[in-house]
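Hi R.,

Here are the chain sequences for the assembly we discussed:
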Amino acid sequence: MKMSKYGLFLLVALIFVGIVVSSPVVAQEKAVRMALKASDIRSLDPHYGTTTIDYACIDPMFNGLVRFKPEDISPDKIEPDLAERWERSKDGLVWTFYLRKGVKFHKGYGELTAEDVKFSLEKAADKARSGFAGDYAALGKVEALDKYTVRLTFKSAIPSVLGILTNYHGGYIISKKAYEEKGDQFKFDPIGTGPFMLKEYAPKEKVVEVRHPEYFRGKAKLDRVELWFMPDASSREMAFRKGEIDIVEGEREQAWVNKIKQIPGTAVEIFGPGETLVLHFNMTKKPLDDVRVRRAICHAINIEELMKFLGPDVTTKIVSPIPMDYLGGTDKVPRYEFNPEKAKKLLAEAGFPKGLDLSMVITEMSDYRRPMEQVQEQLRKVGINLKMDVITHTAFHEQIRKDVNPLVLYVCARFPIADPMLTHFYHSKSIVGTPTAVTNFSHYNKIDDLIEKARVEVDPKKQKDLWAEAQVKILDDAAALPLCISKFVFARKANVDLGYEMRSTLTLVTTIKETTDIRK
Amino acid sequence: MFKYIIRRMILVLPTLWAVVTFVFFLIRIVPGGPAVAALGSYATQESIRELEKKMGLDRPILVQYGAFLEDLCRGDLGRSLITNKPISAEIRKALPYTLDLTLGGMLIGIVFGVPIGIMTALKRNQAPDYIGRILSLIGISMPEFYLGILLMYVLAIKLDLFPVLGGGDMSNPGSRLYHLVLPALTLGIIMTAFISRMVRSSMLNVLKEDYVRTARAKGLHEKVVVYKHALRNALIPTVTVIGIYMSILMGGSVLTEIIFSRPGLGKMMVFAVKDRDYIALQSVIIIFSAFVFLFNLLTDLLYSIIDPRIEYR
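And here is the predicted structure of the full complex:
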């Protein structure tokens, strides 16, 4: 019995460790810790970063020639970033950018010059070194006229030149010297001009960024930013409740929003533009090559019910693959009302009176899996048995690009103009499995002419009409079914001042800027 | 004893080779092979071939095996398919955290489990025994992730005693210990339950032995009877079980590492499975296996310390 005194001693010692070590530390650095729903990054090379965790890490480290206002993604409010001004030719094909002087890259990689801009944009346009090369297909040449002047010549007009030069995807400018030095390892040791620079990348754990002391807009208010990979929702919530995490990526669920709001000193942000949830039908796979089957699926899905399930605060309605608040979005498109009887009738007409079986893979990520499980249940009611194998998010992205799914639920946001969305998902050059593949999972190829005409149309009304016609065709052919828009949900400690009012961001996460601070 | 250790170490090598070989071929008999497993059962033939070529799997199996052994002998575990970083570097970083957790959990288990086991054995069928047995049953039944979240909620959030995030700074022992307490307690409570039951059972057997009765008849103090005569003999099976639990604990640290966002081999293994990073998975399993052998060897060596009659030749 006396031996239990050792146990008692250990217990006291443990509590002592807790009390002593947890005592306040003086002169703490200003740090913000963010927890994101991810197990790891894919790449910190901005021209390859495609997941939200990638965006969260990349955005504080890089700039573009121009940028969106931190709180707003309106294309008409794009403002100077690395370029202090620009000129365009009358035909809109030649753009000259004048760079800020004295902009420094991280870690002594020198001053930003026109050569870095030329190198970055050429890399972004090179499919061997960029995931966004398709966005730059119209870019003819990039010339460094002098140390601080860059001229871009386009082969044809595109809807938004400034759009592809913003702080997003291929528009981020990297250090030429660093990329040439580091090669493939650049993706884990990137060099940019942003307010924060990479200090540490701990695989499967976190990315740590520290203040870039020579940032051209002035030193960031924070010393350090930590971005933790925390796939487990309970752990993220506990860490946030404990105060060890300042900003947490939430679940896009009403219940989560309601629960987290109850924590004192918490600000919940639900922001746009949101991601569109669109179900793409692979028109080359039987039986989805039959439009009646595709339409039957559209009629079998109860979108109102789905939105109610996901939560009214976190979803908004969508009727076309292009959201209404995108330039070119329209609501004058064919709609498929929820009508299970009609769905069954169409299936019978297509030769499936007893229903049919479909198999697909779906990511474990709840943003995809939960809505898809609802769809699965709704389809079951009309006799469509959808077998879903749950795989990792990385594997899912790989697999759907290998054309394995008859149905692909894709959740994404794009530059808020109709062209990128139409080009990436409905142009024949984007069909998955082809050398120029992007994300055309439906193998749709009937609106190439409309997309291409709209892209170079200079009359805004005619351009919108062409985009609207394209959307009508997509839905008429039931190539895809738009489900809804899912907004982003983050919670932060009220003492974290982002330095801007979060309304919408293309990075899809609460991003840390040089203005972000911690109030006492 | 030294000769024994050398002999065991030498014997470990063929056993380790057998495990390594088993792991290597096991991965390759997953339906469709590792590339299909990595890409999923819907992968196209073209993508399978592409990845197989990238992984060097298009070569004859024995050639691959030879290259694998050759790399392993050089201490080269390969590069992660996801991060492209050397696996050995990732393991070097993760291993100390896992060892901390395993040893911490076991230490708590022994310090609490052994006295509780003795007490419940000595007070058999009395109130302390019933309480101890019920508590140990709860401990054994408690899922690790649930206990972890519960401890987090009470000790970290409500009482604000411990952190819930990360493994602390490896170069700072205070920070390391501070971050270790809750995860180690999570595993330690479960270990306490297992060990206390084992000690109770062994003690009950030993207490019935003639030499214990003789010791009591000689008029020895009860403490001497219990700790010198009974406990030392009861510890042999306990140590065996502790050795086995050490291995289980090390491999079973996965959930605790994920819940507390700690780096570690368990977490590395799970994410390797999730990301289909088979090179990483293969390497982590090899490291786990090596530790199982090490724990077994240490267990065997402990026997001679506990019971001097046991000699190693």
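Residues 22-26 of chain A have pLDDT under 50 and may be disordered. Chain A touches chain B through 53 residues (CB under 8 Å).

Let me know if anything looks off.

Best,
T.
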